[in-house]
Automatic annotation (TrEMBL):
Protein name, as recorded: Assimilatory nitrate reductase (NADH) alpha subunit apoprotein
Coiled coil start-end: none
Lineage: Bacteria, Bacillati, Actinomycetota, Actinomycetes, Micrococcales
UniProt GO MF annotations: 4 iron, 4 sulfur cluster binding; metal ion binding; molybdopterin cofactor binding; NADH dehydrogenase activity
Sequence ranges assigned to domain 4Fe-4S Mo/W bis-MGD-type in this UniProt record: 5-62
InterPro entries in the cross-refs: Asp_de-COase-like_dom_sf (IPR009010), MoPterin_dinucl-bd_dom (IPR006657), Mopterin_OxRdtase (IPR006656), Mopterin_OxRdtase_4Fe-4S_dom (IPR006963), Prok_molybdopt-oxidoreductase (IPR050123)
Cellular component GO terms held in the UniProt record: membrane
UniProt-listed Pfam families: Molybdop_Fe4S4 (PF04879), Molybdopterin (PF00384), Molydop_binding (PF01568)
Keyword match Iron: yes
Key words of the record: 4Fe-4S, Iron, Iron-sulfur, Metal-binding
GO BP annotations, alphabetical order: respiratory electron transport chain
Length: 700
């Protein structure tokens, strides 16, 4: 490998906005590189505090710099790479021989580069021969992806460039706190705010909801878990007030009659009773969306991370289709992807039912195409596996997964019902974790393999708008650290795997591009060299084309080119918690200062000092009823566990709801409380509607 240059243009290592940044090597500086925001359409030179401080992690004192192998007494010993990889290969071989190929599992991540995500899917299916691969995007984008696929035949988070939002006069933002999660994005809401048309739907008066104040828009504050009813109510109003775009529905969609019937019973007064959103607000929002001046509907995890998340995202799409917004070039529907490569991470084969190019693993022609690229017989590619929650439930069980390789994920903080996940990990014969740090999951591992960070590697990411971006190397990795491509190649060699496993990112990308050719997410016209020119590379980008900034302008991805309206029905909230005693609904979410499980951001001094621990938001009236004052330590508990957090008494939350951030571990881990129940279509867990009991624990 050639020496790293003194400077590099790249993108932020965290969220899917993929803000552009320039890195300059600073050997005598406080961090190995200095970070500067770079002009780019999504961030316009801006970065949030996570991006500004991202270089802190490169030289962090807690970084793992040599493979670690568990000792019999429970501690770790440093090991050579050969020793660590030989040990892993021996144990994997033994497990496969004794218990079958599916006794080995792989858990990937939405932060991996496209090259790593692609290679991981290939490695799992060919080198390990297992069907047991899935990834943490199942907890993030799976409901919106499933809804987009069944309505449009394709799932690209934003099927238009982010900049299109600048011209919008109305934006309905459902369940997304962008002011905290991706602050540079709010510049794209300025036009809608100036027109009085920013509509934010969130049970909390979040920092994004506050952007609607002073005449900038409307804040809808429904009860947690009632978003589907809210959307049916808006659809009802649009239809009954004659605001539906009948010409669009007749020429570009199917299924309107069934959706009309499903919305028919959700008249505004009934929706108000179920959601708490006033009729006047519902009517104002429906009329505003239909005013024809450029309306967008955007969903986020707040409405998607439910056991009915796919149906809720579908209801949002139905509303957009009934209004005639999608595929027009001046309005639209989109979902705001969360993880840095949440989009690319779900396109290249990390999902249990998928092959590269967003192809179904059960499709014989897809199997034949990918097998041809891999140089194997299609019969050797395993069939579909099981999604993340089910895979984690199999850990250590008879007939289940006995060895697990984890890449880019901290499941003992991020998965639902983490006590059960921890027990499963502890029951494994072998747990291998690839990470930069001893995350909470790595601390349970038998072997920890230290891997390169973003500034130390070449690769590509795909942003929330489906644009493929180059990640360029500014630094050489520390001596004992390796790339995951190298690790997979070395293990594949030891396991006598079929096919080849390049360690050169541009070569892996070229293979990925060939494997994706003809698929929904077609990268076949792309290469690192082309991306290095700064080309605006929106997929599908087939060979011989110039890419597709705006999808669906000439039809949807079905043979008849029509979008599918799909009738969805709420499951009546029979288990809604009675608001008595301390029984409340818990919603979980993110803070400005932290990212995902916090495995990285909790190690950045500026970020952890700003938000050192979890606080539980609780309404003043509720707090008074429970004898809790601001600053008390409260217990939040249910049958699965107890979280202890300082009370933040605030009017920014409904009286029947409490909020915990999910970035913390130990007794502050919000996922001690969440349940492993999943959406029947997407297998998304329920993260946003958990029944808990809240009580004062002690005053500090
Ligand atoms: Fe990084 Fe996202 Fe912050 Fe941009 S908004 S700097 S991509 S974390």
């Amino acid at each position: 490998m050639s020496a790293a240059p003194a400077a590099a243009d790249t993108h932020c290592p965290y969220c899917a906005l993929q803000c552009a940044m320039s890195l300059t090597v600073s050997p005598s500086g406080p961090t190995p590189v200095t970070v500067a925001g770079r002009a780019f359409p999504t961030n316009r030179g801006g970065l949030c505090k996570k991006g500004w401080t991202s270089a802190e992690l490169l030289g962090s004192a807690g970084r793992v710099l040599q493979p670690l192998v568990r000792r019999p007494d429970g501690g770790f010993d440093e090991a050579s790479w050969d020793a660590a990889l030989d040990l892993i290969a021996d144990r994997l071989r033994d497990s496969r021989a004794r218990f079958g190929a599916d006794s080995v599992g792989v858990f990937g991540g939405g932060g991996l580069t496209n090259e790593k995500a692609y290679q991981l899917g290939k490695f799992a299916r060919l080198a390990l021969g297992t069907s047991r691969i899935d990834y943490n995007g199942r907890f993030c984008m799976s409901s919106a992806a499933a809804a987009g696929n069944r309505a449009f035949g394709a799932d690209r988070g934003l099927p238009f460039p982010v900049e299109d939002l600048d011209a919008a006069t109305t934006i309905l933002l459902l369940g997304s706190n962008v002011a905290a999660t991706m602050p540079p994005f709010i510049a794209h809401l300025a036009g809608a705010r100036a027109a009085g048309g920013l509509i934010v739907c969130d049970p909390r008066r979040s920092s994004t909801a506050r952007l609607t104040e002073d005449g900038a828009g409307i804040h809808l504050q429904p009860a947690p878990g009632t978003d589907l009813i809210l959307l049916l109510g808006l659809t009802h109003i649009v239809i009954t007030e004659g605001l539906a775009d009948i010409g669009y529905l007749e020429s570009r969609t199917t299924g309107f009659d069934a959706v009309r019937r499903s919305a028919n019973v959700w008249w505004p007064e009934r929706v108000q009773a179920a959601t708490g959103v006033p009729v006047a607000q519902l009517r104002a929002v429906a009329r505003r969306l239909a005013d024809g001046r450029g309306s967008y509907i955007l969903t986020g995890r707040g409405v998607e991370q439910h056991v009915d998340g796919t149906d809720t995202a579908t209801a949002a799409i139905n509303l957009a289709l009934v209004l005639g917004l999608v595929g027009t070039g001046r309005s639209g529907y989109g979902t705001l992807t969360g993880q840095g490569n949440g989009q690319g991470g779900r396109e290249h084969g990390q999902k249990c039912d998928q092959l590269p190019g967003y192809r179904k693993i059960t499709d014989p022609s897809a199997r034949a195409h990918v097998a041809g690229v891999w140089g194997v017989d299609a019969a050797v590619i395993p069939g579909p596996g099981v999604p993340a929650v089910e895979l984690l439930a199999e850990l250590g069980r008879a007939g289940g997964v006995r060895c697990l390789l984890v890449h880019g994920s901290n499941v003992v903080v991020s998965a639902p019902d983490v006590s059960a996940v921890r027990a499963g990990l502890e029951a494994l014969d072998l747990l291998v974790v690839c990470d930069f740090f001893l995350s909470e999951t790595a601390l349970l591992a038998d072997v920890v393999l230290p891997v390169t960070q973003w500034a130390e590697e070449e690769g590509t990411m795909t942003s929330l708008e489906g644009r493929v971006l180059r990640r360029q190397r500014a630094l050489d990795a520390p001596a004992g650290v390796r790339s995951e491509l190298w690790i997979m190649a070395e293990l594949a060699r030891r396991l006598d795997a079929p096919s080849t496993y390049s360690t050169v990112p541009s070569e892996v990308f070229d293979e990925l591009a060939r494997a994706s050719a003809g698929g929904i997410a077609d990268y076949s016209g792309l290469s690192h060299a082309l991306l290095d020119t700064g080309a605006a590379a929106y997929w599908p980008f087939a060979a011989g084309t110039r890419g597709t900034p705006r999808l669906f302008l000439d039809g949807f991805a079905f043979p008849d080119r029509r979008a599918r309206l799909i009738a969805v029905y709420p499951r009546i909230n029979a288990d809604a918690p009675a608001q008595v005693g301390g029984v409340l609904t818990l919603i979980t979410g993110r803070l400005l200062e932290h990212y995902q499980s916090g495995a990285q951001t909790r190690r950045v001094p500026e970020l952890i000092n700003a938000r050192p621990e979890a606080t539980v938001q609780i309404h003043p009236a509720t707090a008074a009823r429970l004898g809790i004052v601001d600053g008390d330590i409260a217990s939040i508990s249910n049958a699965r566990g107890t979280v202890e957090a300082m009370a933040e008494v605030t009017i920014n939350i409904r009286h029947d709801t409490v909020f915990l951030p999910f970035h913390y571990a130990g007794s502050q881990c919000a996922n001690l409380l969440t349940e492993a129940a999943v959406d029947p279509v997407s297998a998304m867990p329920e993260f946003k509607r958990t029944v808990v009991t809240v009580a004062a624990l002690r005053a500090v």
